[in-house]
């Protein structure tokens, strides 16, 4: 029961009160006029259904990008999914219990925390699909940098 209470506390801290709940991860992407994925629009059940990373791992949702180019061309779902597969930018949804716990390896503390945008290696981590997109579980030492706005990073 202690683990269940701990998980409930993590979920409550990770996702603030939600104004409008949604049932799919794709519904958390805001309209193309706005900047990017808005994790506060996720229904708690979506977060609860996502796997809890074990050990020193992080659960990351790769950035999908905007639905429209700067020139006004509307991108197809296939193009957006391909961009999501190739991205090196993601949103940290959950952090494993042992992530950044080794004080010898991380004397200055964690490199990132839940709710931050990070850059990770293109082929890093384990990829899997959920309803609405791809997720990755990466090791805590695979985080290359934290960023404020995922649109600042251009993919290759």
Q: How large a portion of the residues is in β-strands, by DSSP E?
A: 15-25%
Rg for CA atoms: 16 Å
How would you characterize the largest beta sheet? 6 strands, antiparallel
Integer average pLDDT:
79
Number of helices: 3
Low-confidence stretches: 14-22
**CATH third-tier fold name:** 10 Kd Chaperonin, Protein Cpn10, Chain O
The figure for the number of domains is 1
Number of strands: 6
CATH class: Mainly Beta
CATH homologous superfamily title: GroES chaperonin
Structural class: alpha+beta
Explain what the structure shows.
This protein is of the alpha+beta class and 156 residues long. It has a single domain, classed as 10 Kd Chaperonin, Protein Cpn10, Chain O (Roll), CATH 2.30.33.40. Helices cover 19% and strands 20% of the residues. It contains three helices and six strands; from the N terminus they run ααβαβββββ. The chain has a six-stranded antiparallel beta sheet with strand order 4-5-1-2-3-6, with helices on one face. β4 and β5 form a beta hairpin. About 6% of the residues have low confidence.
């Amino acid at each position: 029961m202690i683990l269940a209470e701990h998980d409930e506390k993590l979920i409550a801290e990770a996702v603030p009160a939600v104004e409008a709940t949604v049932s799919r991860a794709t519904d958390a992407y805001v309209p193309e006029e706005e900047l990017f994925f808005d994790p506060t629009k996720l229904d708690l059940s979506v977060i609860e259904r996502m796997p809890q990373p074990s050990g020193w791992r992080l659960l990351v949702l790769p950035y999908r990008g905007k639905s429209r180019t700067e020139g006004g061309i509307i991108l197809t779902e296939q193009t957006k999914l391909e961009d999501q597969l190739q991205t090196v930018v993601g949103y940290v949804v959950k952090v494993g219990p042992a992530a950044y716990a080794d004080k010898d390896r991380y004397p200055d503390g964690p490199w990132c925390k839940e709710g931050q945008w990070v850059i990770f290696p293109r082929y890093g981590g384990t990829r899997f699909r959920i309803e609405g997109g791809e997720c990755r579980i990466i090791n805590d030492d695979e985080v290359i940098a934290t960023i404020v706005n995922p649109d600042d990073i251009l993919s290759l």
